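BUG: 3D viewer hangs when loading the predicted structure for this chain

Environment: internal workstation, default settings.
Expected: structure renders.
Actual: progress bar stalls at 90%.

Input used:
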Amino acid sequence: MADGFLEKHHEEYEARKEAWLRKKKHLPKTVKKIERPEDV
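Structure tokens produced before the viewer hung:
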């Protein structure tokens, strides 16, 4: 195995993970409210 192979792939993984987390945080949260029937 080449020297630095694992380190290089780990750095690429961390960069992808950081980008994914940044994208995830900017997405609007969808909250579905459950409508309950009123018992009279």
